[in-house]
Every structure is written in structure tokens, then in C-alpha cells.
Amino acid sequence: MTPDERRYALELDPGEVERYRMMAEQARAAEADLWDLAGIGPGASVADVGCGPGAMLPALSGAVGPEGRVEAVDADPEAVAAATALVAAAGLGNVSVAQARADHTGLAPGSLDVVMVRHVLAHNGGAEDAIVAHLATLVRPGGCLYLVDSDGTAFRTLPEHADLTDLNDRYGAFRAARGDDNRAGLRLADRVARAGLELLEFSGRYFIGQPPAAVRPPAWAAREAMVAAGVAGEDDVHRWDRAFQEVEAAPVPRTVFAPLFTAIGRRPA
Ligand SMILES: C[S@@+](CC[C@H](N)C(=O)[O-])C[C@H]1O[C@@H](n2cnc3c(N)ncnc32)[C@H](O)[C@@H]1O
């Protein structure tokens, strides 16, 4: 599969947009010190590469303020449209959104204080180092690349349900068949070092939360891609849907556990 043939597997729907919004809100609070360390502050120029529907853009816009700017890019036209609409609705005058691939963004070399990349490398198996190498060139000397990804093999949901375990297992197999790295978060520091950047930070946190019923995991957002790939059938999708409804009806709230990792690499001055 060439990079241009390769389609992002997670469908955007209102539940998926809400999932990104919740993750962004949580990240902003949990990563405040890391944003400071990387230089995401008033007046900074920051890129959000693979911005999705733009969930992180209000926080980035606020952090850099009127003297700063945010350049958001994504390869998926639907994500670009959603991010553009969000920017317009929220009146984020210092944010621009464009369609571009992470390994050739079209952004000017050395033009940014920080390049942020959240949950993108995990969907680009085999191309991760090429993406990181390109993005490292966009950062000015002394500026930072800010990478976030997870270890999908360690996601947990309670209460357990055999059909939801099956969904997660099938998603893992689907991702492996695409050549994607389900443990991308564990390798972020190595990628920073291979790009010739100085590793300022490599740390993680364990997200634990109770999402609302409309917010389901990435495996659910990949259901149609899994059907198209022959990894699952429509009967499986109905079975998983029923399982979510059963878990939501249980007296114990559905709780999600996800390990998340951040690596910050500084371009030598
Ligand atoms: C899991 S979403 C994360 C969205 C956002 N970064 C966030 O954390 O809220 C991944 C996004 O990366 C985009 N993406 C994946 N591979 C890409 C690539 N090679 N170039 C540009 N965008 C890419 C997808 O289209 C999708 O919108």
C-alpha cells in the first residue's frame, strides 16, 4: 500500500469527535508542564500535524495568544473540514488549517517553534521515521518536536465483556495486518533520537476515565474499515454494538484505562 492509497481507518462521527474533545481537554490539564517545557506559550508558532477534527486547536490557540500562530494540517479532507468549521465557529483568528500529509506538510523549514503530533504515528506503520525526519526540519534551531502516542496493547475497559475483548483483539489484528505499530508510544524516544534531536523528555501517564455512552474506543471507529478489509462482518458490528449497550446498562460505570506517552525532542541550536 503506498502512502497515498492508505486510508485512515477511524470514521469521524459525533461520538468520535467528542472522544477527541475529551482527550484534548484531559491532555491540556495533564500536560501543562510539558507544553511549557517545549515552548508552547505566548507568541509561539506551533504546528498541529494530523490535527483531526481540531480538538486541540482551541487550547493551542489560547496558549500561543494573539501574537502567536497555529498551523494545523491533516491528510483527511473530512477532518480538515471539521477542523476548519471548529476554528471558524470558535473565532480562532490565529489558527489556519490545511490539507497535507505528515511527511510532506508544505510548511516552511525552520519556521516553527514547536511541531506537535498526537496519535498519528500509530496509524503510519513503516513511515514513522520519515514523518519524524520531515517534521524535525520544520522546527527552528532550539525549537521542539512534541510527540504523543499510546500503547494500544495495554488498553483496558471495565466491566469486561467477551464481545468487547473480541472487538479489541480484532482491531489489534487489523492494525498488525496494515503494518501499524499498536505500541507506537513506547518507541517515541527512539524516533526523536534517530531524527537527530536532543531528547528533553520521555514520560507517560495512565488515563483512567468514565466516558459517556456516545464515546466508544478507536476500535469501534474502525468497524467499517474492518468490515471492508474482511476482518469482521456486519453481524460482528451488531454484536459489538449490543455489548456496548449491555455494558452501559450495568450498574458499574464503564471505565477506560489507557497508557499515553510524550516525547519532546529539541533541535540543536
Ligand atoms: C487519532 S486522530 C488524532 C487527531 C488529533 N491529533 C488529536 O489527537 O485529537 C489521527 C489523525 O491523523 C490523521 N493522519 C493520519 N496519518 C496521517 C498522515 N500521514 N498525514 C496527515 N494526517 C494523518 C488522520 O487523518 C486523523 O485525523
What secondary-structure arrangement, pairings included, does this model have?
Blueprint: H1 14-30, H2 32-38, E1 45-49, H3 57-64, E2 69-74, H4 77-90, E3 95-99, E4 112-118, H5 128-138, E5 139-150, E6 156-158, H6 162-178, H7 188-194, E7 198-209, H8 218-221, H9 223-228, H10 234-249, E8 255-266
Parallel strand pairs: 1-2, 1-4, 2-3, 4-5
Antiparallel strand pairs: 5-8, 6-8, 7-8
Helix pairs in contact: 6-10
The structure holds S-adenosylmethionine (SAM).
Number of strands: 8
CATH topology of the domain at 14-158 and 180-211 and 257-266: Rossmann fold
CATH class of the domain at 14-158 and 180-211 and 257-266: Alpha Beta
- The CATH architecture of the domain at 14-158 and 180-211 and 257-266 can be given as 3-Layer(aba) Sandwich
Helix-strand category: alpha/beta
Overall morphology: globular
Helical amount among residues, as a percent range?
25-40%
Strand content: 15-25%
Bound ions, cofactors and other small molecules, one mention each: S-adenosylmethionine
CATH homologous superfamily of the domain at 14-158 and 180-211 and 257-266? Vaccinia Virus protein VP39
Supply Rg: 18 Å
For the terminal residues, how far apart are their CA atoms?
A: 38 Å
SSE sequence, one letter per element:
HHEHEHEEHEEHHEHHHE
Biggest beta sheet summary: 8 strands, mixed
Average pLDDT: 94
What's the helix count? 10
Low-confidence stretches: 1-5
